Amino acid sequence: MIIGVLGPEGSYSEKAAKLWIRDKGFKTVSLRYFEDIEDAFTAAAKGKADFSVIPVENSIEGSVGISLDLLLRLKTVICGEIVIRIEHSLLSKGGRENIKVILSHPQALAQCRHFLKENFPDAEIRSTGSTSHAALLAGEFEEMAAISAPEAAKKYGLKILLSNIQDRKENHTRFLVIRPGNFHENARVPENCPHEKTDPDSEGASSFKTSLIVYIAKDRPGSLYELLGAFAKRGINLTKIESRPSKRELGDYYFYIDFEGHIGDAVIKDALKDIKTNTDMLKVLGSYPRFEKN
Amino acid sequence: MIIGVLGPEGSYSEKAAKLWIRDKGFKTVSLRYFEDIEDAFTAAAKGKADFSVIPVENSIEGSVGISLDLLLRLKTVICGEIVIRIEHSLLSKGGRENIKVILSHPQALAQCRHFLKENFPDAEIRSTGSTSHAALLAGEFEEMAAISAPEAAKKYGLKILLSNIQDRKENHTRFLVIRPGNFHENARVPENCPHEKTDPDSEGASSFKTSLIVYIAKDRPGSLYELLGAFAKRGINLTKIESRPSKRELGDYYFYIDFEGHIGDAVIKDALKDIKTNTDMLKVLGSYPRFEKN
Predict the structure, then answer these.
(1) pLDDT grade for A199, boundaries at 50, 70 and 90
(2) Residues of B numbered 4-63 whose beta carbons fall under 8 angstroms of chain A's beta carbons: which are they?
(3) Domain ranges, residue B36
């Protein structure tokens, strides 16, 4: 089994993937490392990976735009979620006084915005495809430092100059596990994803989450309210609602909605029927076990 | 009068500010240029600028996170909006074949993600405080190129190598004009902002927009629906709803809501009374004339 992650070794995506593999008890897994989120995502969409693990949301900086865009555009099904704590370190070959260039992924740079502004106002900021790629590159010159997971230090021969440097101590990222395919009620699901066909209502609704994308044309302003009503009147708990530009014109959005419950539950099926009539496009992304901290 | 914008000269914020100044008919204005969005924002909050013009949302890449965060955190009032077309160019001193480094603001880099991946997969990507700062820096070496407004080419001695390079031809950014102060119904408003005290209902509701931030605690999942109901049942059109992490924990959000109407309108006042009882925090950001294309 192949699982695609953001590479090279030492990325937070790899950490999330390993946690998921352990949880599922998978034995024969090989990780495949990709240069950026889009490549890791595309690998799952095209079946070059059985699964890919993709960062989707961070508690400081919010959604990862490219991941949301690809959930809409590519054919994948969400079959899991993982949340991990993010503690960024500043890694370098040299000492703090030599640092002229700081490298990291744009999300990590944004999570450390104040740290950078206060401590390295004159450093050149380079954007990389992943935090681990930043660590790899920082191994080249003493004047470079990477914002990365502390685990990457050893791997790339760097020293940890500073720990836990993000702007808020509490920092978590949510990852999605995606697999090839389109969500469809009667579609065949891979052996590894039995939860997708779980017996309706057999487990507590709150142990599953379902994600979907809806499009509501700009000229139907009351429709979002009606759509949320389909959940509210059935007591279905929303866990997230997020807008993302349609890219057609300013002020035109897709809405990404996560809620508690499994697509096989009668109450969810019923809600979706309602929703279909109130939206101009509905894409179900998948039902998957809610992440539980161990 | 001092208006703060993202600098140096040649930024899109400057372009937006000049459009606003022309529209308002202001005569004695001096622009003050700031290094990043936070500095331009803080200048308005601290009264070092009478107004600042801040990018808040782009039609390809979505909201500007730092601007949303500062709207919550700092004491400013929104008193205008401007929408301008964004056409990014690739600017350099040298020829296309020499380019090794590409510089721009993270939002512009994200708006040109595919362009970069397809055309310059091996280029080093540097992140700058503004697109115009990227153009300024690109003047140093022939191997550097900036993604910037074409107008910056002449200013910084660069050639336009490629035009309109963002991933979608249609590309617009919305800017907010902010001023020092806290929104309060009975607060004194500056002479330049008479629209803030316009006669209620005297003009069509749709010629004004109002923006606010609400916080709904995570354990009250139905509250967002009730909140939207306060608008829907009064026929108030929402133009935007966006979530932003509270930064306290994953899954905990502030909601940013824009709608048609003026805070002085009876129907809006009435809706806000309703909303106050359904939310754990409400911050009114301001009422301002809706942007109209000339």
Answers:
(1) low
(2) 36, 38, 57-62
(3) 2-86
